Amino acid sequence: MTPTDKVGLPALSLDQAQTLLARSQLIPLFAHAYAFHLNFRFNRIGIENLLQFAHDHRLNGIKIHLDDGEALSLRHCDDSRLMTLQKLARQLGLEIHVEVSSTDRAELGAAVRIGRLLAATSIRCYPRYAGRVSEIIAWTIRDLRQLDTLDPHRQFRFTLEQHEDLKGEELVRIVEAVENPNLKLLFDFANMLNAYEQPLEALRAMAPHISDVHIKDAAVVSEQGGWGHRACRSGDGELPMARLLLELLLLGDDQPQVVAYGLEEEVDYYAPPLRFADEPADPLIPWRNVSETTLAPGADLDALLAREIQDARDQLAHVRGLLAQLRRHAERFLQGQSPE
């Protein structure tokens, strides 16, 4: 079985159908800065534009990396500018979630300082170490045990993302070893592929701890006995997006467990395989840089920048279409009819 096998929508109990119907109408969607990666990289848009996009499209907030925007990024803002951004987000009724590509103390400390000035509510991180899987797990547990010191008043929800190297059960092992109630998991629709794990398997392994999500689509690239992924326009790839959304929306009994879904369209982003079918018991993970979409030589930059903004709008429309499909699926069960 491969991740490209078709996955349909499951039968629902009446309780599940009622839950799905209600939650699919109130899903907390967030604009994600990576959907505008090139526009940020070439300083065509800024943080204010991302906030305005979220407001204009009736979203709940934004997810943004400390380094989105290069020299104009959050990392390079002075305190006055960060407070101005906080005020703008508050005026627009939007949450800010900060992201950082490390779990080391210096990077988490920078995210906490900036997050406080922004009145952010969440900080995403992931380990980016080279070493044996067992070492990466141990180093990440060590890092994340510092969260009580970095955030003693527990202002933030910290999320650990599955980011192409660790499997779902390995991430769960980290969270349960750290034992911080404010540490949760962020489920990305595609990143488990690079760790040679299928999307639904990863979701079910991580399910008890998932609070946040990155929504994207991708084509699966089979190579060297593993899986890479090439992100694409939502709906053009091979991921079971509707089924993943359904299962995520059903997490949590009385209240939704997942509190933020980031719209992370990443057209043409490529990530190679890091885990393999025939890997040893404790495989070695190589060093890798932070995520970046490669520009082809001679690419028409202006056309790419315009397309990127349209792709972000189209992803939102596609996701809202999937949510409408899920509502129809739930309604059929509530009406006592057979599913689609």
Automatic annotation (TrEMBL):
Key words, A-Z: Isomerase
Membrane-spanning residues: none
GO molecular function annotation: isomerase activity
UniProt superkingdom: Bacteria
Keyword Isomerase: yes
Domain Xylose isomerase-like TIM barrel: 106-251
PANTHER family cross-referenced by the UniProt entry: BLR5974 PROTEIN, HYDROXYPYRUVATE ISOMERASE
Stated name of the protein: Sugar phosphate isomerase/epimerase family protein
